[in-house]
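Issue 218. Parser rejects a valid record. Input:
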Amino acid sequence: MSEAVGLAERLNRDCECVGTDVPALQQRLDAKLGIETHPHLFADLPVFLSKQHAGEMQRVISAVESVTRLPAFREQVLGSAPAIAQATPKAHGVFFGFDFHVAGDGPKLIEINTNAGGALLNLEMQRAQQACCNQVSEFLRLEPSAEERARAIVAMFMHEWRLARGEEKLRTIAIVDDSPGQQYLHLEFLLFKSLFESHGLRAIIVDARELSIETGVLSHDGQRIDLVYNRCTDFYFAEPAHAALAEAYARDLAVITPHPFAHALYANKDNLILLSDATTLRAMHARDDDIEVLTRAVPRTLKIGAPEQRWWDERKQWFFKPSAGFGSRGTYRGDKITRRAFADVMRGNYIAQQFTPPGERRSAQGDFKIDVRSYVYEGTTQLMSARLYQGQTTNFRTVGGGFAPVYKLA
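Output the parser choked on:
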């Protein structure tokens, strides 16, 4: 274990410093957005991560990006995907979230998401950081500012537009979800609207059911929509409420990002079965160094199937996840699962991922588990954040938990 890795573990165990001025952050957001923030959205504790582990996480991300370009990988994952996800769009897809558990033996990639929320909330949190010592002050000074990162986010959306539409002018962006005003991260939608508008774009927050196709364009209330920032978790637009999105995507009537292709290629949890298996990767002609990185960092993952008794006997080794799930819904830690929930797993479309314990952050408020998320675009990490929680999964319900800043140690 390197000195920096050991120091990060000791600080996460023993350091009581406060990273985020949560009351000031909530007050500023409440005033800026006109709505009250959730009480457990932000943690005041920072999370410490060695630059060695941060570098390993980027190597994992780069290896995934390399493997997803392999013809054999694409043939396998897209061949079983819905038809809407099989055509390759020009836009890459914004806000991939690579979620890691990080312990002494290195980062473990738990899952990949293709509509990861929270990036702008983390930028607001960055503005509320308090330097508890000279080392943290120096770290904050060397990091890109929240304003620089915000400009990079806008540039990412503009790049998506240019990939799909060239030099045509982008005018209107719709931030789309189901009942967006009722979503837990609705305040982030408001932040995106404000950010886009500050760069001269018309931005609207739209319920997916209110979209329509009119005279060959995607519209809302008679207004043409050029680009959709898609926050829907119906990843293949299969539900009737998403018929307009499905048609717009299939006919390329608007630029939609992230999109069904990205989810099929990166975020379907069945893909972890391939990414964790050296024999499969070798048969797909993956590079040796990518195979080494992935099989070390991606916990062994298998498809659930008969015999049932085998899985019950081995349950403590596994974490069970629905192949098409998101946001920890329907997930079960094997050593905590009940017989009733296990029966649901056996009847459902589930994977079993080798249980990899999360890191820990200790404080006077209690002991928290740590997930570290890298927000990624085109294989490059834009921002890192942590989520502190108690219980089986991240939940934003834990007193003292929520998004936490990540301080990288040299």
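Fixed in the parser; the record now loads. The CA atoms of residues 67 and 286 lie 6 Å apart.
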